[in-house]
Amino acid sequence: MGKYSEDPKWSDIDPLPTDEGGPNPLAAIAYAEDYEETMSYLRAVMAANELSPRVLELTEDLIDMNPAHYTVWLYRSKCLFHLHSDLHEELEWLNETALQHQKNYQIWHHRLTIVDALGEECDVQGEQEFVARMFEKDAKNYHVWSYRQWLVKRFQLWEKGELEFTEKMLEEDVRNNSAWNHRWYVVNGREAEGVKGVTDPEIREREIKYAEAAIAKAPQNQSPWNYVRGIRKASGTELAALKPLAERYASVERPGTVRSSFALDLLVDILSEESGGKQQAGKALDLLATTYDPIRKNYWAYRKSQLGLGSIETAATA
Amino acid sequence: MRSRISHRRRRNISFPQRRSMAAQNNQEHTLGNLLREKARIVEIDGEEGFDYAEHDTNELNGVPFPGSHLKQTVTGVSIVPHYLQTATRNLVHDDLQTVTSETQAKTTAECLPYVTGKDTQGLALNSHGLPHLRRKAHAEYLRGFLGELPAGYAAMDASRPWLFYWCIAGLSFLGEDVSEYRERLMETVRPLQNASGGFGGGHGQFSHCACSYATILALTAVEGLEVVDRKAMWHWLGQVKQADGGFRMAVGAEEDIRGAYCAMTIITLLNLPLELPPEAHARGAGLQTFTDRLGEWVGRCQTFEGGIAGAPTNEAHGAYAFCALACLSILDTPHVSIPRYLDTQALVRWLASMQTVAEGGFAGRTNKLVDACYSHWVGGCWSLLQAAFSQSSATRDDFAAVTELEPSELWNPAALIRYLLTCCQQPGKKGGMRDKPSARPDAYHTCYSLSGLSAAQNLYIYENGITVDAESGRLTAAFNWLAQRLSPGKAMQELGIDEHDVVECVHPVFVVTFDAVMRAKEQFAKGGL
């Protein structure tokens, strides 16, 4: 006998046991008794479309056993809204659950639904702090970053310490690409609404300087190189403006001094846009293919063919 | 002497790197090439203690190669490739330590003994000194999941369809007969199908795009699609289509690019009408079909890095790159639909950068770690991208003329194969494949490692053909792919594999075998509901 079948509160429910489809199901899970029982009560209440406080308890129980159960989350939120439940309380419970199940995916969509409904009643700063705490455990958690973006947009946090937050994250780990992506979002996320990001010369200058400083700390870090390339493209400005930066870390004339393969790659694109620069670009590609990034030899050879140059020359550095 | 051009792509298809015959001949007759050929012969003979660095082309050409004095001698026939040589790996190195660089260093240290062949974990080696693919052990491992699973698997109670798919598809990639699972699978998924359409993760669970996708593909693999209520599926998909063009994963759930790829796969395999059902709320925003605004929505997922995010403005991620390219490859001919919505040059740069040094496999994001599952998610992008770059049409005749294959020219398939065979195979009795050596094997990594192996080994080309079926209105571009299994010869040698290590051709868009895709194409040729 189980928790629910013995509880008079649930005596009116006829549980719906798992239908395995046949005598010989594939990948059949030998459910623990309590899990099977709880699920059979959930099936029954869902079939009756019951939305009640006891259903909230039931879903809480199931989420504790299996937080990846998307149906339970979706049904729970339906129930919460139907009952006009205290969403602050829900958030408190979510905090504990999120910290227990770091990798869980569904919880963030649920949180978003709750916080969205709370609207101006939500302690936004508390949300920011909670998210920051999640990053202490995993600073690259995809769903948490995605939630953070939503938070910024929903509560218009663009200029409320968010840029500083990315700085703090990148101070801790300049290679955290998720933080770079968030920075991009904070700077450029309102272009569609007419608030300029890197299309504004001042902001562009500031962002390039920021990336340059990051590159100086660790030149062989792909993130800020991608960032400066992105700025160039989004703003439609000349790649040539990045030449001094690229040349600080890579040179075709002095191949022994290359400190970043990403700088060399950038130099290729800059040189190939210069009149008469194609041959030099080809030499830079040879250097990448033979010396500085040989695992991508085929890719560098492809780039060379795109420039109308021949195949990779192994003697390029001579 | 072997001809160098014999293992370049030789066919009348325009590939991005295709060079003129004159250029190839010119290259072929250089001294460097003559010597390199000699070096290859030594490699084939399997001379003990062969020193690769001594034969390195840089040195042969008199190039001052930094650190070339640090020659690395390997035992056995396995030759440590250039990119793995200590001197190469350490050429550009930053002193600043952060969590990212520390975890990367740890992963490299964990993999290095295996990828360099210093530790073979007692695995049987092929004629190139790499571990053989453990076909039997991996097949047994996957079959194990299709039986009864212990209570702990309740954590996967909402994703059981994935288990059906990973195991059945994985077995078929190994060339195993999966038809024996037909009846059982059809029975098992019956309670997962909701009367209102679609499949959930289990009995009594809401319908979900990922669960429906996995169920449909598993059923496709065993020829059991008649169990699907197509009409109800069409109605349900109408509920998840969004006004902005994308798809939610379930009613009330998140909208992301998986939804777009999963939904279009289901619609195309089952030949569901492209028109939205009358009750679909997206109709209220002026949309009429499932494909309306879809390409634009996918395009919005490309980030400043060039890669693709799960949803607009999120971080670029390898799994989503595959979803984007495969989704666009369903909508139209890849060289039409992919460049229309994506900056392909930025994407190819980003994808190429995902191959990690020194492991040779793929990471899923910038500055993240190698993981075998991206062998499929990133590895599976290349044939789609190559089709996007291909301007002229390929025909069956061109394909038949291919005698020797080199599976790809934009990335490094040999390095991926080396990673998968040396680092990702679980040694010992159990079998299965894993993310990286310190991880346990699982069905997910086994399936996608095998799919990645196929991407690295076999050749896939898109044959220009009909993209919309005149009678049923079905999108047919994704059915125009041709595949050729890697045949013995030079290419195998370049990739470091024997015939025993070759997996079956995996469909570049639908990720099941070609036979299975063709059967689904035939089964629902008429369309309608």
From TrEMBL, chain A:
It is an enzyme of class 2 (transferase). Its EC number is 2.5.1.58, 2.5.1.59. One of its GO terms (molecular function) is protein farnesyltransferase activity. GO terms for cellular component: CAAX-protein geranylgeranyltransferase complex; protein farnesyltransferase complex. It comes from the Eukaryota. The keyword Iron does not apply. Gene3D superfamilies: Protein prenylyltransferase. This is Protein farnesyltransferase/geranylgeranyltransferase type-1 subunit alpha.
TrEMBL record, chain B:
InterPro entries: FTB, PGGT1B-like, Prenyltrans, Terpenoid_cyclase/PrenylTrfase. Residues 133-489 form the Prenyltransferase alpha-alpha toroid domain. The keyword Metal-binding applies. Heterodimer of an alpha and a beta subunit. GO terms for molecular function: protein farnesyltransferase activity; zinc ion binding. Its EC number is 2.5.1.58. Transmembrane segments: none annotated. This is Protein farnesyltransferase subunit beta. Coiled coil: none annotated. It is an enzyme of class 2 (transferase). GO terms for biological process: prenylation. The keyword Transcription regulation does not apply. Binds 1 zinc ion per subunit. Belongs to the protein prenyltransferase subunit beta family. Pfam families: Prenyltrans. PANTHER family: GERANYLGERANYL TRANSFERASE TYPE BETA SUBUNIT, PROTEIN FARNESYLTRANSFERASE SUBUNIT BETA. It catalyses: L-cysteinyl-[protein] + (2E,6E)-farnesyl diphosphate = S-(2E,6E)-farnesyl-L-cysteinyl-[protein] + diphosphate. Catalyzes the transfer of a farnesyl moiety from farnesyl diphosphate to a cysteine at the fourth position from the C-terminus of several proteins. The beta subunit is responsible for peptide-binding. Keywords: Metal-binding, Prenyltransferase, Repeat, Transferase, Zinc. The lineage of its organism: Eukaryota, Fungi, Dikarya, Ascomycota, Pezizomycotina. Its cofactor is Zn(2+). One of its GO terms (cellular component) is protein farnesyltransferase complex. It comes from Baudoinia panamericana (strain UAMH 10762).
